[in-house]
Amino acid sequence: METFIIKKEDQNQRVDAYLSRQNQDLSRVAIQRLIENEKVLVNQKKTKASYKIQEGDSITLEQEKPKEIELKAQSIPIEIIYEDNDIIVVNKPKGMVVHPANGNPDGTLVNAIMAICKDSLSGIGGEIRPGIVHRIDKDTSGILIVAKNDKAHIKLSEQIKNHEIEKTYIALVRGIVKEQEATINMPIGRSTQNRKKMAVTKNGKQAVTHFKVINRCLQENVTLLEIKIETGRTHQIRVHLSQIGYPIIGDNIYSNGKNKWGIEGQCLHAKSLKFKHPTTGKEMYLEAKLPQYFNELLYNIWDVPFGTVWDRH
Fold first, then answer.
1. Domain 2-61 classified CATH 3.10.290.10?
2. pTM as predicted
């Protein structure tokens, strides 16, 4: 249960609008449903979605529990980059959801990891997210750490919270990026126009993305970028690059997705992670190779293997 005390600058807003801005995981429609089910109380009394909040109001929000999803181990091929008694690091393929949810009950990374690790997974992520320390989008490929025990999970979560894990991505974007390197520092929150999307918004949470150019192709009007993120907001890289006019090739949410190569889903790959091992404290650097479609696309554009393009940087 969450409690909000209304400040003077927030008064006279509709209670449903206020709560949807405070909780980016809930849409305004979801908030209205909670209000109807008396899961939202103002000063310990039931309310209406249209109620205009006042300074000093105490609002409590109780979220409904998600529908139970039966977890099952599934023998799904997955590339293991590294594994020991505490962690398993994998290269998630494009098109795979990280954990089960309504609409994606199986076929996820968690289902695959359960078949590999059996009962050896941290329970901190919850029943449907065992071992999951961080996530990447369904159509983003690349490196992910999964914790095998609670101690490892806690240590890794602390590193993420303290921005001590260095995450590096590769993205192919539309347009010729003029700067050789730059930083995008724009807050990200739930879009007010489309609740399924994120957007740069003044009421959002701080989001910082650093990028530098690996290569440009004037003929195809594309740029290959290396990206490092300080924060891990939902869709952060996709939102930031689209906001500055360089949407990721294939992204059908933050761009129209159309491209001459027929790529579906964003050309975004989580290339590497640098972190401290949760038990030994040893600094680790691990890489996930680019998926075949991405390599073939880069070869199509530059007519050289990816490693050669990278070496030009």
1. yes
2. 0.78
Catalytic residues: 137
Span 79-161: which CATH code?
3.30.2350.10
Measured between alpha carbons, how far is residue 32 from residues 18, 88, 195 in Å? 11, 41, 14
pLDDT tens-digit readout, 218-261: 999 999 999 999 999 999 999 999 999 999 999 999 999 999 99
Q: State how far the alpha carbon of 299 is from the alpha carbons of 126, 209, 236, 306, 310, in Å.
A: 42, 27, 27, 7, 12
What are the domain boundaries of the chain?
Answer: 2-61, 79-161, 166-312
pLDDT in tens, 257-281: 999 999 999 999 999 999 999 999 9
CA dihedral 130, 131, 135, 138 (to 10 degrees): -50
- Rounded Cα distance between 290 and 298, Å, is 10
Picking from 249, 98, 111, the residue whose alpha carbon sits closest to that of residue 172 is: 249
